[in-house]
Write a structure and sequence with these properties.
The complex is a heterodimer of chains A (905) and B (352). With 905 residues, chain A is of the alpha/beta class. Chain A has 24 helices and 16 strands. Chain B has 2 domains: 160 residues, no CATH class; 112 residues, no CATH class. Helices cover 60% and strands 0% of the residues of chain B. Classes of the chains: A alpha/beta (905), B mainly alpha (352). The complex binds iron/sulfur cluster (SF4) (2 copies).
Chain lengths: 905, 352
């Protein structure tokens, strides 16, 4: 029963592809080699995508083989282990294998020759413990994707939990010419590979497990089949025809499933996980043997080597050592490539080390890889297009790249190019197409970053302006408050201890002023932080390694700045209560209230942070740091809650003796002002948004973001507004609490109405503008009437009127409960509320009057120009005049009531 | 150890350079040239020589003026290809200065002034052809007849062809006759059947000679497809459209129209489909685009042949579709991997 369990997988195909000479036999002549220990091992800290690891060792430390020498630095990072026993002789910058010949921080290990293992601790019970623990273990073993990009495996596996997996694909295609490392690995470690796949399958539970392998590796395929049959495994082997780039993740997925990974998404999003064979073996070695990732299979090949072969090589081995091992002929060597001839990159120097992702060293002679022929003009022959596996139009992309038409290039899906090089390979004009695309891509990325930067600058400017506005408004409000407070204070003084309220009142505003500024700063800082974090996440997702570091730095800075500000803020109130504390108990209620509020804010803040951390924890369950942080926060939270309850108790005890009203109402007022400002900001942003939408401006997204933030702030403030009211009522032990709720609801509704109103108004304006435009264009009246705008104008006006009517109705409704509360709290202050409503209403009516007048004017003008429509126009004029009169009457009434109110005061 | 620093890929398909592509296209015209020479004498051959020399000279001159490396660009064979295509398209006994004008105009104005190879929006050979067709209609309509049908009763000898081209053969009239397309165009009030039985150009030997010419180009074209230098899309779409158009009109009105077979085997049908319309620079890029482009040319050829002022329509059909090519390109982008549908137009910013 040879193939009982072997369900043959369906094979699909992908567009394009090429058949370069395979050149794979050279390196398969000799058996697997094991080079001797080099004099030193160079271990770069950044062998994977993401944050560089953090070294755990110092210069001079002695380490054993397999000992951890660097640990992960954040979520997207990995561990690093000593490939042999020896001494750390340096931690310094060294040249690394990198497309642009960069250097990076490396741990230099001088082997002692004894190659003694540290104690190995396999994870023998991996089937029983939780999967997250297994993932954490894999991370600690330094397992990363060994096929290309070096994506930390535990992160990739976590990503695979997002959706139920239909396919778990093991990439054994190895389509690049020359490279045979995976082929050799499968032959040598067939069982380990299958066991590794089984472990991974246990972790991800996919419906199908398929090994995708090109048909040019018959020995490996046979070996796999034998082992799978023996184990009666459900794992399928899908033999795909040899065609470059069938080993590209996206192409292999298409070959094996017929599905395409949507542009800009990941295989996990369509329920597919891809792992390289090397990774599977590494997983097996880590879990069943306890061996961390310290060596890999690498192909040494090329005409400049006398003994091309595959080797199992320790990470950190300098390439020069391997070239010696394979007896390179320096005279013949003209190009040294890490990786294959299609996607590899040239090395400047043989001093660079082998890292976890180095699958091939190609030492090519000049004859083998001659220097590229001179570039000729593109004749648009379309051969590139026939070869492109992504179904792009390479010749058009070239054209746009050369003419720097980046938008068009993006429109032609430049970013879906996988840089496989198939197009350059077939181009008869020897155009280095991929080089053009890389350059264009990086230019576009730079341009994007520049716009992000300028957006940030704009937002910073606006935030500062908003803060200044808020400060000015607050000063104004305070001035008014002081004016009003003077008479009430005299009554106060008559009733209670004289002369003591004054210093308190004077000291308090100063500090609150200061603290408010701090708070605003903090808020700004936090929003910045949030944005930065988002960017960072994006960068990590898109694997822009260069950005990640700088962003991380910025985030840390920002966090520090916020922490500093918060500290200052915390000191602020504690400084103030000291002075009034000497005063009577009555005076001290204010600070207590303040403190209470602060404590509550603390509680809320910590709660939010906690929640965030917990969310993070769900994503990265293995992060001990996070857990610690959460614990710390939880204790903090409890402490803060304790403070709150203690303080509220104090407040209540104070209520008997004194009136917290003043303090409370002061707070209340400030909050209300803040809320009003925030609402205004919301409105402003909304208007901007609308305008932007009209002209289809590119900033829409940014403005939307602002709007969301502004609304958030407004909502927060309103909530806060509801809170102190409740608090003060609490303090007075009254039962008016219920009033706060409807008040809040009403405010919400009012806001919605206001937005509607704004929309209606904008509609009118637009319609009017369009009509005017038509008139200016010399269109006659009939045409204008025929156009949709007049009817739209009327509609919008009607809607506006309806909305305004609604507005005035709830305004009185709202003022009723407010007044009720006002009676019980502070009379003078709350009266400002209906007054403000009145003022706005007056303004609105004035606008209505002006509008009506304008319309009458317009109608009159129309009457002159089109006497034949006189009848209908006259009717309209009459209607408008009626409306005008109504509005004027209402206006008068409103003004009257306003003056009344002022007099009453 | 001076190591080369180059970005990937580090290897190229061996041997298939641009000059190779051009050479192959030139070689693929050989069957056609042979048949033409066999049927119409050495005129075609002499034309080719004149055209090639003119092309090389004008290309070199312009390159020198533009301060480009002359040798490098001459070696891409693109100028020679233009010359060859023009040489076989022009009538075999056309005066030498017509050939020179056509080729010089094609190279200098239609190609180099636009920026040289790869930048010309119009097919240079067809621009040159159209210019002389419009400017010198009389010599351009003087095709030779097959020997059995002309009054001289023989094909021009090499010397006679030379003399004819350089204007010293007064008896040339006894060797020329109208092409079948010309003859059919000028059937005036005769219906098809009468035309085919009475007009000399529409008799068996004349029709057969053109059948042979077209078959020869078909062979060359198939070779190009086999070599993957051109794809099947443009020729198939062109011939298909021509077939459908002529078939439909012939069904509809058999007495005034010619059969589809007649349309596909006379004039420059095959030559145009495989050698002219497939000029990569001025045609569409994507496969879908090529289908539309080819079909457009086929339809235009039929329209011009049936109702236009010229007997054949390949040159104008190709030029007109050259205008449309960029637009077609924008609307026929292939669906990129990972996208639900193909993008069309140039609305930047809208994504799928
Ligand atoms: S293969 Fe080269 S010459 Fe041909 S269309 Fe593509 S880029 Fe142009
Ligand atoms: S490098 Fe990009 S454009 Fe070229 S074939 Fe590959 S995917 Fe297509």
């Amino acid at each position: 029963m040879p193939t009982v369990n072997m369900q043959t997988a369906n094979i699909f195909s992908f567009h394009g592809g090429i058949h370069p000479p395979e050149n794979k036999t050279q390196s398969l002549q000799l058996p697997l080699g094991r080079p001797s220990l080099p004099n030193e091992l160079i271990l770069p800290l950044g062998q994977h995508i993401g944050q560089s690891s953090r070294p755990l060792v110092k210069v001079g430390d002695k380490v054993l083989k397999g000992e951890t020498i660097a640990i992960n630095n954040g979520f997207l990072s990995s561990f690093l282990h000593a490939p042999t026993s020896g001494t750390i002789t340096a931690i310094e910058e060294r040249l690394i294998a990198h497309p642009s010949g960069l250097s990076d921080l490396c741990i230099i290990l001088t082997p002692d020759g004894s190659d003694t293992w540290t104690k190995l601790e396999p994870l023998s019970h991996w089937q029983d413990i939780s999967k997250t623990d297994v993932l954490a273990y894999l991370s600690e073993m330094g397992i990363i994707g060994m096929g290309g990009a070096g994506f930390p495996t535990q992160v990739k596996l976590q990503g695979a939990y997002k959706n139920p997996l239909t396919h778990f694909i093991i990439n054994a295609a190895e389509c690049e010419p020359y490279i045979t490392a995976d082929d050799m690995l499968i032959r040598e470690k067939t069982l380990e590979l299958v066991l590794g796949i089984e472990i991974l399958q246990h972790l991800v539970q996919a419906d199908h497990v398929v090994i995708g392998i090109e048909d040019n590796k018959p020995t490996a395929i046979a070996a796999l089949r034998t082992v799978l049959n023996k184990r009666k495994s459900k794992i399928q082997v899908a033999v795909v025809p040899t065609k470059y780039p069938s080993g590209g993740e996206k192409q292999l997925i298409q070959l094996l499933t017929g599905k395409e990974v949507p542009s800009g998404q990941y295989p996990a999003d369509i329920g597919i996980l891809c792992q390289n064979v090397g990774t599977c073996v590494a997983v097996h070695d880590a879990i069943t043997l306890g061996k961390p990732l310290i060596s890999r299979f690498t192909t040494l090949t090329g005409d400049a080597l006398k003994n091309p072969q595959n080797v199992e090589v320790l990470l950190g081995t300098p390439v020069a050592h391997l070239l010696d091992y394979a007896e390179s002929e320096p005279k013949k060597l003209s190009r040294l490539i890490m990786g294959g001839p299609m996607m590899g990159y040239t090395l400047d120097s043989a001093a660079v080390p082998i890292v976890k992702t180095s699958n091939c060293i190609l030492a090519a002679s000049k004859k083998e890889l001659p220097p590229p022929a001179p570039e000729q003009a593109c004749i648009r022959c379309g051969m590139c297009e026939q070869a492109c596996p992504a179904s792009l139009l390479p010749q058009q992309l070239l054209w746009f790249s050369k003419s720097q038409e980046f938008e068009k290039a993006e429109h032609h899906n430049l970013f879906d190019c996988i840089e496989c090089g198939a197009c350059s390979y077939v181009c008869p004009s020897s155009i280095p197409l991929v080089q053009y695309y890389r350059h264009t891509k990086s230019s576009i990325r730079e341009a994007r970053e520049a716009t992000v930067k300028s957006d940030l600058a704009k937002q910073r400017f606006e935030a500062r302006k908003a803060r200044q506005d808020a400060e000015a408004a607050e000063k104004e409000a305070k001035r008014l408050a002081r004016q009003k407070a003077t008479p009430s204070k005299t009554t106060d003084e008559k009733k209670s201890a004289p002369a003591k309220a004054a210093p308190t009142a004077a000291a308090a505003p100063a500090t609150t002023d200061e603290s408010k500024k701090l708070k605003v700063d903090i808020a700004i800082g936090k929003s910045k932080l949030k944005k930065l974090e988002k960017q960072l996440l994006e960068a990590q997702e898109n694997e822009h390694v260069e950005d990640i570091n700088s962003l991380q730095l910025q985030v840390t800075d920002q966090e520090k700045a916020i922490a500093l500000l918060e500290e200052q803020l915390a000191q602020m109130p504690s400084a103030t209560p000291a002075a009034p504390a000497v005063n009577t108990a009555k005076a001290s209620t204010a600070p207590v209230n303040d403190e209470l509020k602060k404590a509550k804010v603390d509680v809320a803040l910590i709660g939010v942070k906690l929640k965030k951390l917990q969310k993070q924890l769900i994503e990265t369950p293995d992060d001990q740091e996070l857990k610690d942080k959460i614990n710390a926060f939880e204790t903090d939270l409890k402490a803060a809650q304790d403070t709150v309850s203690r303080l509220s108790a104090t407040t209540e005890s104070h209520t008997a003796a004194s009136e917290p009203k003043a303090a409370a109402s002061d707070e209340l007022k400030k909050l209300k002002i803040d809320a009003a400002i925030a609402k205004a900001a919301v409105k402003k942003v909304e208007k901007a948004l609308k305008k932007a939408e009209e002209i289809n401006a590119p900033e829409i997204e940014a403005i939307r973001q602002q709007l969301k933030e502004a609304q958030q702030r407004a909502d927060d403030l309103e909530k806060a507004l509801a809170n102190p009211e409740a608090a003060s009522q609490n303090a007075e032990a009254q039962t008016k609490k219920a009033d706060a709720a409807p008040n809040n609801v009403d405010a919400d509704a009012a806001k919605k109405r206001k937005i509607d109103l704004a929309i209606a108004k904008a509609g009118i304006k637009k319609a009017e503008k369009n009509i005017q435009l038509l008139q200016e264009q010399g269109k006659d009246e009939a045409e204008i009437n025929a156009s949709e705008w007049p009817s739209k104008l009327k509609e919008a006006q009607e809607k506006l009127a309806a909305l305004e009517a609604e507005e005035s109705a709830p305004a009185t409704a709202v003022s009723a409960p407010v007044e009720k509360t006002a009676d019980t709290v502070a009379q003078s202050e709350v009266k400002a509320e209906p007054e403000m409503d009145l003022a706005t209403q007056i303004k609105k009516e004035k606008i209505a009057v002006a509008l009506a007048k304008a319309q009458i004017n317009k109608l009159n003008k129309r009457l002159e120009s089109t006497p034949e429509d006189a009848d209908s126009i006259n009717q309209e004029i009459n209607a408008t005049q009626q409306r005008l009169q109504r509005a004027e009457a209402l206006l008068e009434k409103l003004i009257h009531s306003q003056t009344n109110m002022q007099e009453n005061r | 150890m001076a190591l080369l620093r180059i970005t990937s890929p580090h290897t190229q398909r061996a041997g298939r350079r641009t000059s190779w592509v051009m050479q192959m296209v030139i070689l693929a015209t050989i069957p056609g040239i042979v048949v033409q020479t066999w049927l119409f004498g050495w005129g075609t051959f002499i034309n080719l020589m004149i055209a090639c020399i003119t092309a090389l000279l004008s290309e070199a001159a312009i390159l020198a003026i533009r301060r480009r490396p002359v040798g490098f660009f001459l070696k891409d064979y693109s100028a020679l290809l233009t010359a060859v295509l023009l040489g076989v398209a022009l009538p075999p006994v056309v005066p030498w200065w017509v050939t020179v004008t056509a080729v010089a105009f094609a190279i200098i104005f239609a190609k180099q002034l636009y920026g040289g190879l790869g930048n010309n929006p119009f097919n240079p050979a067809m621009v040159g052809y159209a210019i002389v067709l419009v400017s010198f209609p009389v010599p351009m309509s003087q095709w030779l007849g097959v020997h059995s049908m002309v009054s001289a009763g023989e094909t021009l000898s090499f010397m006679q062809s030379l003399q004819a081209i350089f204007h010293q053969l007064p008896v040339i009239d006894s060797y020329t006759m109208a092409t079948p397309l010309d003859g059919f165009k000028h059937k005036d009030l005769l219906d098809s059947q009468a035309a085919f039985s009475s007009i000399a150009a529409l008799q068996g030997p004349s029709l057969n000679s053109w059948l042979w010419v077209n078959l020869a180009y078909l062979v060359g074209g198939l070779a190009l497809i086999w070599l993957r230098i051109i794809t099947w899309h443009t020729p198939v779409a062109l011939l298909g459209a021509l077939l459908i158009m002529s078939g439909a009109f012939h069904l509809f009105d058999p007495s005034n129209t010619a059969t589809p077979f007649f349309h596909l085997t006379t004039g420059a049908a095959m030559f145009g489909a495989f050698f002219i319309a497939t000029d990569p620079v001025s045609s569409c890029t994507s496969n879908r685009g090529k289908l539309i482009y080819g079909a457009g040319i086929g339809i235009l050829i039929y329209i011009i042949r049936s109702w236009g002022g010229y007997p054949d329509g390949v040159a104008f059909g190709v030029l007109l579709m050259n205008f449309a090519a960029p637009l077609i390109d924008y609307y026929t982008q292939p669906r990129t991997y990972g996208h639900k549908k193909a993008k069309t137009g140039l609305k930047v910013g809208e994504d799928n």
